[in-house]
Amino acid sequence: MASPFSTPDLPALLLVHRVCTPEVLAELERRVRDGWIHVGTLLVSRGVLDATQVERVLALQRRKPTRRFGDLVVELKLATLDAVESALEEQRERCPHLLELVLADARCDQARALEVLRVHVRQLEGTVAQFLGLVDPSPVDGG
Questions:
Q1: Where are the domains of the chain?
Q2: I need a labelling partner for 58 at 20 to 30 A (CA). Which of 21, 69, 100, 112 fits?
Q3: DSSP readout, 5-23?
Q4: Cα distance between residue 72 and residue 117, in whole Å
Q5: DSSP state, residue 138
Q6: What letter does residue 140 receive in the DSSP assignment?
């Protein structure tokens, strides 16, 4: 499963801004993928969920692909919001984000990485604003 800590356009931004080589980027993306721990795995390891419950949530998530695993767990009353948030915090602590690895890697250009971070945050802000209906995503008519 791909990590959500790397949005599809982030690797492209890193390459376009020449933050690192394609080979270095591929290695860092592999480290993100290999280090990813699903929140369901964490909830099972804590004894909050069992394998049958995880399968139930995953089946529901296949029918509702826009719903997050933790939200469904709480909605189904399989765990408390506190338990899910605690597992998510552990996930954030234990699973690297691609930008964290880029900023820590001497083979990457740190100044360019910070510029990518600025661009990426602006893109995310625009996406959130569209999602919340705060901006109109349609193109502006020049006439």
A1: 7-34+96-133, 37-94
A2: 100
A3: TS-THHHHHHHHTTSS-HH
A4: 31
A5: S
A6: P
Supply the DSSP string of 76-132, one letter for each residue: TTSS-HHHHHHHHHHHHHHS--HHHHHHH-TTS-HHHHHHHHHHHHHHHHHHHHHHT
3-class secondary-structure state, position 137: coil
DSSP state of 66: T
Exposure pattern of 25-39 as b/e (b: 16+ CB <10 Å)?
Answer: beebbeebeeebebb
> Where does residue 50 fall: left (phi above 0), alpha (psi -120 to 50 degrees), or beta otherwise?
beta
Residue 64 tokens read as: 């509702």
* 38-65 residue pLDDT tens: 999 999 999 999 999 999 999 999 999 8
Residue among 41, 45, 44, 40 nearest 57 (CA) = 40
